[in-house]
Specification:
Number of strands: 0
Number of helices: 13
Strand content: under 5%
Distance between the termini: 31 Å
Low-confidence stretches: none
Oligomer: single chain
Helix content: over 70%
Radius of gyration: 20 Å
Order of helices and strands: HHHHHHHHHHHHH
Largest sheet: none
Shape: globular
């Protein structure tokens, strides 16, 4: 590793630690160290803030990694975690659960669990469909077209459900879609960590084949890269990383596109191992920053990420058009 990369990582780690401390001290009440360490009167509030920081760290790791895989595989800087329609189908599954389960009486903790499970189940179903269809698509662009069609279809069904939904069900779905980072419990974080760890392990095994794939299909095959296995690994890893966060946090938009873009600006884009590490570090820093802004302004997390991400993507489009 180069000296510049080490200094960059050290700077990002210090910034992440600083932003995490700021997160723990952001809220309606001022907490002391004893609230975080002992059984004090405000220990429950302290636990909520710790959970908020943990889930933002996990989101900062998983969403940019998913976007990084998509962009490197499709060789398109505008590709994101939702390019295959995974996020849209997860949202559709949650919509079905919210709009059709209001007559079922369940404890609150089970309601949150089933909501997350419905998103994961829908995403896994689409992942299986993608894996079966990908064998017929030799060209990568067909997967993108298929993902676009799936996203459009899922969006249309969600709009139809919203049109006929009751007021309370519609409100619950909108609140979920805003991204509620304070609603994730410690047990859910454990489940989320396992899913993300599985996705990261698959990602770790795809970096080396991705390096060969970036040099061209023919060259990758000459190096012994199994392109079909690489495609399956990318689909599974991206699905696990993006679907798990969508299930527990709601759809967090544009982070998976803009973080890899910034990482390519600050360091050599051909060094994929270093790029992956930078994506995770910068993603954690950005999600912690958005969390602080959300707590200070009471603006939903998804709205903040969209307000920040849309201008960046617009600049990227204008820059590509000039080239």
């Amino acid at each position: 590793m180069s000296y510049r990369f080490k200094i960059l990582c050290l700077f990002l780690l210090i910034a992440i630690l600083t932003m995490a401390i700021i997160n723990l001290n952001t809220g309606f009440l001022s907490l002391n160290i004893s609230d975080f360490l002992g059984d004090a009167s405000n220990s429950q509030i302290a636990e909520i803030r710790i959970n908020r920081v943990l889930v933002m760290l996990l989101a900062g790791i998983s969403i940019p990694t998913s976007g990084f895989l998509m962009q490197e595989y499709f060789q398109n800087p505008l590709a994101g975690p939702d390019i295959l329609g995974i996020t849209s189908v997860a949202s559709l599954s949650v919509a079905f659960y919210i709009f059709f389960s209001h007559d079922i009486l369940l404890p609150e903790f089970l309601q949150n669990s089933f909501l997350s499970l419905s998103a994961i189940a829908g995403s896994l179903f689409l992942m299986l469909v993608l894996l079966s269809i990908s064998k017929r698509f030799q060209d990568k662009s067909y997967l993108v077209i298929f993902g676009f069609l799936v996203s459009a279809f899922a969006g249309a069904i969600v709009s139809l459900l919203q049109f006929y939904a009751e007021n309370q069900s519609l409100k619950n779905y909108i609140l979920w879609s805003f991204g509620a980072n304070n609603m994730v419990s410690r047990n859910q974080i454990y489940v989320l960590s396992v899913l993300i760890a599985a996705g990261l392990w698959i990602c770790f095994n795809t970096i080396k084949p991705l390096i060969g794939n970036s040099l061209g299909t023919s060259y990758a095959q000459s190096l012994g890269v199994n392109l079909n296995r690489l495609k399956i690994s990318i689909i599974v890893a991206s699905s696990l990383l993006s679907a798990s966060m969508t299930a527990f946090l709601g759809p967090i938009l544009f982070i998976g596109i803009i973080v890899p873009h910034f990482c390519r600006l600050i360091y050599n884009p051909s060094r994929l191992w270093q790029q992956w590490i930078l994506n995770m570090f910068l993603g954690m820093l950005m999600m912690l920053l958005f969390s602080v802004i959300a707590e200070k302004t009471q603006i939903p997390l998804n709205v903040i990420s969209s307000v920040f991400g849309i201008p960046v993507i617009l600049v990227m489009l204008l820059k590509q058009n000039k080239v």
